[in-house]
Amino acid sequence: VPLNAQEIWAKRKKLPAIPTFSPKLNAIFGGGFRSTGVYVCSGGPGSYKSSMALDFADAAISAGNPVIYVSAELTPQLVMARLMGKKLNMGWLEALDTEDQKKIDETDALAQQYGEYLWVLNSEQSRDYTKHITNIYARFVDANIKHNAAKGIELTPEQQHVNMLIIIDYIQDLAATCADKFD
Predict the structure, then answer these.
(1) 3 state SS of 21
(2) What is residue 118's three-state secondary structure?
(3) Which of 79-88, 121-130, 133-142 shows the lowest per-residue confidence on average (mean pLDDT)?
(4) 3-state secondary structure of 56
(5) What's residue 158's pLDDT?
């Protein structure tokens, strides 16, 4: 049933934001990324697009929001190594290959901190990434429902929503393999 302007406005609701790593970007975006937005970062090779995407992922996770990182170029292990290297001020190769027990403990602790909040899909999984994203999102919705039910709170369908940041790194490759998934 179509709604008129007054009905639309009467049913308005706040759009929660997922903060970025940058206070300036948060100000531009009105507090961070909004669920109604698609944000595209473009630039030439070596312009730190993937590096910035990892910063966005870390900031979202630090704020308690789950992240799905879809990479058409890197394996999940390399995505994690780059993220850990950035976060722990070491090179990604050092994060991956270190034999220094202190650094191993730091990377292990960070992996545990990210835990269920970071999911990385590789290029093979990206062929059917919409299925994977839907399944991961459903896990968080179920967890949200169960968490609140344990407190005696029954959520309405609107309240069951979970804010999630989805990063697609190198959309050109994914667009070619998933063109039929887009409306």
Answers:
(1) coil
(2) strand
(3) 121-130
(4) helix
(5) 78
